[in-house]
Amino acid sequence: MSQEKMSYREKLSGVFAPIATPFDEEGNLLLDQLASNIRKLNESGLRGYLVLGTNGEFKSLLEAERRKVLETVLSVSAKDKVVMAGTGRESTYESIIASKEAASMRADFVSLIAPSFFAKKMTDQVLLRHFRLIADVSPVPVLLYNNPEVAVLTFSTSLIGEISKHPNIVGMKDTSKGNFASYLLAAGPEFNLLAGSASYFFEALVMGGVGGVLSIANFAPDACCKVFDLWRAGKFEEARTEQYRLMTLNQKVSGKFGVAGVKAAMDFAEFYGGPPRAPLFPLTMDEKIKLREELTVAGFLKE
Amino acid sequence: MSQEKMSYREKLSGVFAPIATPFDEEGNLLLDQLASNIRKLNESGLRGYLVLGTNGEFKSLLEAERRKVLETVLSVSAKDKVVMAGTGRESTYESIIASKEAASMRADFVSLIAPSFFAKKMTDQVLLRHFRLIADVSPVPVLLYNNPEVAVLTFSTSLIGEISKHPNIVGMKDTSKGNFASYLLAAGPEFNLLAGSASYFFEALVMGGVGGVLSIANFAPDACCKVFDLWRAGKFEEARTEQYRLMTLNQKVSGKFGVAGVKAAMDFAEFYGGPPRAPLFPLTMDEKIKLREELTVAGFLKE
Amino acid sequence: MSQEKMSYREKLSGVFAPIATPFDEEGNLLLDQLASNIRKLNESGLRGYLVLGTNGEFKSLLEAERRKVLETVLSVSAKDKVVMAGTGRESTYESIIASKEAASMRADFVSLIAPSFFAKKMTDQVLLRHFRLIADVSPVPVLLYNNPEVAVLTFSTSLIGEISKHPNIVGMKDTSKGNFASYLLAAGPEFNLLAGSASYFFEALVMGGVGGVLSIANFAPDACCKVFDLWRAGKFEEARTEQYRLMTLNQKVSGKFGVAGVKAAMDFAEFYGGPPRAPLFPLTMDEKIKLREELTVAGFLKE
Amino acid sequence: MSQEKMSYREKLSGVFAPIATPFDEEGNLLLDQLASNIRKLNESGLRGYLVLGTNGEFKSLLEAERRKVLETVLSVSAKDKVVMAGTGRESTYESIIASKEAASMRADFVSLIAPSFFAKKMTDQVLLRHFRLIADVSPVPVLLYNNPEVAVLTFSTSLIGEISKHPNIVGMKDTSKGNFASYLLAAGPEFNLLAGSASYFFEALVMGGVGGVLSIANFAPDACCKVFDLWRAGKFEEARTEQYRLMTLNQKVSGKFGVAGVKAAMDFAEFYGGPPRAPLFPLTMDEKIKLREELTVAGFLKE
């Protein structure tokens, strides 16, 4: 089926990789390596890509670099892949500019993280106005992005209950711990909720989530898709077994090392990972050797 | 004495206003009103200005707007006023670009807030490298800016003990609660420490701080300078009495309302305050009326 | 099957009520009402009772009162019900005394919350020694109790991986958010993990948990057992639907009002709830009326 | 002057030691060593003692042990020393019992820490009722005890503004960071506020505090009294210099190691310190050797 005729729900059902942004040792942006990573992921069962998210170190990119990154991904992304672009900024004004721009570049969805610099002032009333003002004018549908670890605040269930009524806010990526089902209860089963971490991907599906945006999908897309596919096929026990494998992988990589770990694992798996941009540090040589061993023993890398 | 011959300590001794950035109701930047505010502050006893800080809503400004704001302040600032420019960004790379640019525009100091998006990864080792890389190349001396409320993390005393040895890192603005003397103890009395809140300005001076960057100096510069001048003149009791007045003022304005409160009070005091940029809300009419009354009763506004 | 021959796993599989402790308006302990509540619960499908837990306000009871409460429950508890006693205290010493005493009174399990007064000192090493010293001498098997909301700290997965090897530590009640599957992964599927909140009871079962200790089981035991029974019977969809009903109930009662809400709902459901002991406040009359209405509309109370 | 005729303010002006409770290696209470420590402190310039506080590990004592500890201190305390007894418990009821008992044993003041098990329910309204109910019936005047590190919650300034009006609540020990002057502003200068940490003892005096309850006074009473005496004598510069020495001492002992550190330092200074009661660990032999060296180098111990 061509994407044009798919419902939002169909477009969002499955696994997305929050694309890591390649840099060289000096911190220069490497667009060719980005393109090459995407081409490789195009062959996987991934539903699509989230560009300019947390794992993309979007806060460490100049605005002009963000544009290039999004352009690059959109230009090489396979036809059947759905592309979400992170366009949340600290001001409503700048978020609107970025959302319109992403839409003009033909991103399928924009993804809005909450402004967090003035986190204590981000009451439900403030967030409601902020997201509505953007959604009102965004040419493409909006997904919210709830990530207390980086954005400090956690969306309240009443905020989600209210904002999910907006016709142009069609779902949310939830990276908070232990709130997934509460958001679904508040928003209703039509709201497209995606797990933002592999650590509860299966539970999210069980409770009614449509998919996941999983950092480890950057280097292990098939392991992620397997959970989804088994679940869809009604193979409950096998899906759960795979979920526990995924959790192990996620703990060793993203849980322990964050973006730097994801990039190291990408290198192992023959993607271009490279170092994160400073201030973040890459893994030390010892950490890399140990991680490689662990992933090999766990069966995620060929010996 | 001409500024050229002043030591860093002399340049930093006194009260600084963290300049608020004027917007109209639609969120457009108002540079004329900014210039006019600065001209009025030029006549006060303020030691100088911090441009593009928290109260300047710098995270809500486009990079091009930041440049214009700094240019405007530098162009109208009186000769005897010292100008610090906020140039901390989420990446080391962008912080270096911003610091060089501010220096080329003739800011006297750059002020570096910590990257905080990946706050959990901001170990002392990471922050040390980050700040050193910037300070190594910054053409003007660097001040650190410690503000856990907006930057999530609090600098450790051992980080400050270590980093204060860098020849181009000459001081810090500390907006954390209850750590001021510990930082001075760690860095040594030569380190130029400034209070980042009126709530402990006097205690900071008592313990060996050189001055303060006080949000309420945007509309009440004289009340702030009074504490400093009385302290300098050895009038301990009177300085403390004024400090308690300042605390009251600070609680009612910045403590309760943040930037939006500072801007409302600026309007009362015949500066241009205006609304903050969205997502922040301005005070409601009721809040403004009540605040105006309180400030009048407390003697900060003429009836 | 007689309880004597049941495995720990069998004894722990199902729903437990963390028994609320009845007081009169002056805060006096009401043992008769406690006995009467238990007799009524004896007729439900509950697997058993947790006495002297958070919902039992055990921290607000004198040690002598704790003894009486446990005695009372044990004396009227039906033969087929399993009784866990909360015996975690701030010192290892006192926890041992309490655990031995509970065992001598014939409690089936003791439940150990972490000491939390010196929460910052409660490293894994400290907690390991603490729990092992108690488990080494406890005549009955030990369950850990992980509840960051009241005990401040959250058990690390590596602590649980390690401590679950102790032969006398047979399981854990987990009341933290979003960690359940990680604990199971760390401890292995043999470890008896119980959900400590109705908000994720079904997810806990799905991931391999054996049961739940659910505050709302104090007044709605059947609604809780229904989720468990449907799950056991392989009726996945229906179990999930009931889980969402349970979440709604839990949010309106425990989530919003804590123990005071549970007690108000007990009164509605013809148990003795009464007021919590001071410093806690009971619900106001308005809150009670509103809650009663909501529970009636939601179908949990007969009109 | 005999204590009987002293005002509360006079009784509270100076340095208090929050008495550590001696145990042997098995955790048994050592009352003789406690008596001997007090006799030695009787000869110092301390204003008095706080018994059954955080440093007394009161939460790790059985209620009967608490009684014995208080009895012991009261029986050997010198006539000119003022004794405060920690009587805050988790329930209002038990706090009243403990306060009456302490008064009947002739403690001069009772000190009330906030109930914290249900910290999220401890609104200002709840705390107001709790403290008032106790103060209404306490035969001796009440001091509040604000310690967020162990009691989780921080008193709001409006709570302190309100509760300080109660005729039997005469002061507060504040162990929170950076709030001291705000409490004084809220309560008025008549309220007797004591610093609960050596790290800001001097600042507290400067702002209008009457004294301090300082953990390091358990082994270094003279160094603590020196700051107070110099301040009283108007020797500002020397007092500040001593304060910085005190901070260094406090960081190395209490800051780094808590109660266990205080006890190790007591052993060095020829008091009986001994180990803390489990779950707390004593310092390792290496930590003790290093600490002893540091304290010797810093001039706090004779070589």
Report what the structure shows.
The structure is a homotetramer of 303-residue chains. The first copy, chain A, has 303 residues and is an alpha/beta fold. Chain A has a single domain, classed as TIM Barrel (Alpha-Beta Barrel), CATH 3.20.20. Helix content of chain A is 47%, strand content 12%. The first copy, chain A, is built from 13 helices and eight strands. Chain A has an eight-stranded parallel barrel with strand order 1-2-3-4-5-6-7-8, surrounded by six helices. In chain A, helix 2 runs parallel beside helix 3 (63-76), helix 5 (124-137) runs parallel beside helix 7 and helix 11 (236-257) packs across helix 12. The longest helix of chain A has 22 residues, at 236-257. Chain A is globular and about 50 Å long. The mean pLDDT of chain A is 96. Chain A binds chain B through residues 27, 54, 57, 59-63, 90-94, 115, 117-122, 125-127, 129-130, 133, 149-150, 152, 258-260, 277-281, and chain B through 27, 54, 57, 59-63, 90-94, 115, 117-122, 125-127, 129-130, 133, 149-150, 152, 258-260, 277-281.
